[in-house]
């Protein structure tokens, strides 16, 4: 499900775990004069119906709701879904923007650039009994390391207060995806032009994860926001909008 605002080339914004499309609200006024902005709600968030689809099925369902020649901009878990959607149907997309992205969220024997599984276990243990408090703790983690951490935390917490808390099973399913999904084998074949935007001090998905993506995706470039954490679009929204405008205006390389 998505809300559509503005006019121009289609641009879909996909939120991450725990925070619905409200997280993009500070950018909508600047983006909507030049883009037809699709504020996507993942299943179980906002007014979107909850479904039982797996990660790949959810990526396909996302594609099915969007027009052809759309630029998909995904943040965090939304970026992982955007990568999967682009692998499924690259011909449907005009471009791919990955914000605070990683191909694999949890540490593995050959992948230290990630979070320990214990972090997800901690969140999974608390979402069933204290979902609101769990999301508040997560919002604090998102702003960690950012030079504007207090302001970003206030923005994220305000968004949580103004949004309906997803059901516990929705939150747990997202945590399962973060634990199980490893997109690294899919990257070399994904030739769609891509822009990676990452905070220098991202405490959730380290900058090295984005650098790995930039090296493996054949048509990618990376923009690093100095002093920013996991939400660079809130740390410097003006620069973020300029980058999106320029990327969407550039001719597609097909």
Features:
254 residues; alpha/beta; Rossmann fold; 7-stranded mixed β-sheet; 10 helices; 7 strands; globular
Describe this structure in words.
The structure is a single chain. The protein has 254 residues and is of the alpha/beta class. It has helices spanning 25-31, 55-64, 77-88, 117-127, 131-143, 149-162, 168-180, 207-216, 232-235, 237-249, and strands at 2-5, 10-14, 36-40, 70-75, 93-99, 194-199, 220-225. Helix content is 42%, strand content 15%. It has a 7-stranded mixed β-sheet, sandwiched between helices. Helix 1 (25-31) crosses helix 10 and helix 4 packs antiparallel against helix 7 (168-180). The protein starts with a strand and ends in a 5-residue tail after the last helix.
Q: Gist?
A:
By secondary structure, the chain is α/β, with parallel strands linked by helices.
Q: Could you outline the blueprint of secondary structure elements for this entry?
A:
Blueprint lengths: L1 E4 L4 E5 L10 H7 L4 E5 L14 H10 L5 E6 L1 H12 L4 E7 L17 H11 L3 H13 L5 H14 L5 H13 L13 E6 L7 H10 L3 E6 L6 H4 L1 H13 L5
Parallel strand pairs: 2-3, 2-4, 4-5, 5-6, 6-7
Antiparallel strand pairs: 1-3
Helix pairs in contact: 1-10, 2-3, 4-7, 5-6
